[in-house]
Amino acid sequence: MLAGSLLQPLSQAPLPAPIAPREGREPGQIVVYWVSADEADAALATLLQVRHMAPTSATRLEHLGGLVAVFQLSTQALANEARELLRKDFPSATVDFNTRYRPLLQPSPQPRMYLPQKIDQPNPGANPLGGAGVRIGIVDGPIARTAALNGVKVFRKSFLSSTEVAAPVGHATSIAALIAGQDPVVGFVGIAPQASLYSAEIMRSIGPDDLTSSLALIRALDWLLAEKVQLINLSLGGQGDMVMEKAFAKLATLNVVVVAAAGNGGPTAAPAYPAAYPGVIAVTATDAADNLYVQANRGSYITLAAPGVDLWVPDTELGHYVSGTSFSAAVVTGASALLLAQSPQSHNKATMPQRLCRGAKDLGARGTDAMYGCGLIQIGALLREDRS
């Protein structure tokens, strides 16, 4: 069992050191994921009885299954040691650090207006369903109630504690607007304006940085499954961890389409997660000339591309321009909603990537490649083919 000097009762544990803004994990925290709730109960009881150690939180996952718990260690060195000992003593559990994930966005220096033409976006009259009846989960920060979202059903749940500061509304509001917003004054129409949005608010601010953790992400996913969403948009990314790998492996067996930003790390960056997990539709970004976003990741996990450079989005004032794979992912999430609304019985998780790629504009090397995937999404073409 764990050394008594390693894991301390919460009442005796000193406060963790101040958080460095760009760290890749929650300081001193270990996440343990048991796929069996009964096994988790027995393990936690043993830790409490023998080592007087209790988790800072424990959450039963009603839809992903099992239980996830987080333990707070007083230093990162003790957390490193605790992770290895917990893995040894509970081999059937998945143990890793509480990893941070961040919005994948980049400030836009040169604004342009080109999205509808580049993706063959049908006007609302040509596609009256507009994603009606489709439930879309957005895992991000809080969404502001702007004029462009006044007609959109937005259901919210915060996963932040009372001591945490919610991230600014800009990123999540832009994602929501691209998916379902409408602003007739300026002629802006999101991809699926009649879809319903379920906002899982997990992003928090620490100094100048916005981030979340694997614990918050897994709890958000479980809530979205409880709400029976058909699509989940994940415009965030990080290095990945074993707990997330296990959770997304289970998610891959469920009939919910998951779309994620491919990453803004540049040509030599490691794969970004959750986009690189199997079963996730990974979306990269292109500009008005169909060039790959200069900061986009490359890799065999890329599914397809969508515009994500200098996109205009409405906000609480006059609107602004954004760049990053976060926003191209939102475009593909909206397109997926249109397909689900048009043919709800003929679409499922397994066929969605192939359907999205049908009619795509081939870019880069001939065929599927590590930069653009199968190519640039063409919404009008895929809807027409889907009806035929």
Rg from C-alpha positions?
A: 21 Å
Whole-number mean pLDDT:
90
Beta-strand portion reads 15-25%
Task: Please identify the structural class as seen in this structure.
Answer: alpha/beta
Shape: globular
**Count of separate DSSP helical elements:** 9
Report low-confidence residues grouped into runs of 5 or more: 1-21
Number of DSSP-assigned strands: 20
Main sheet overview: 8 strands, antiparallel
Assign a percent range to the helix content. Answer: 25-40%
Order of helices and strands: EHEEHEEHEEEHEEEEEHEEHEEEEEHHH
* N-to-C CA distance: 62 Å
Explain what you see.
This protein is α/β, with parallel strands linked by helices and about 400 residues long. It is built from 9 helices and 20 strands. The strands form 4 sheets. Strands 1, 2, 3, 4, 8, 12, 13 and 15 form an 8-stranded antiparallel sheet that branches. A 7-stranded parallel sheet has the order 7-11-6-14-16-17-18, sandwiched between helices. It has a 3-stranded antiparallel sheet with strand order 5-20-19, with helices on one face. The longest helix has 18 residues, at about 325-340. The N and C termini lie far apart (about 60 Å).
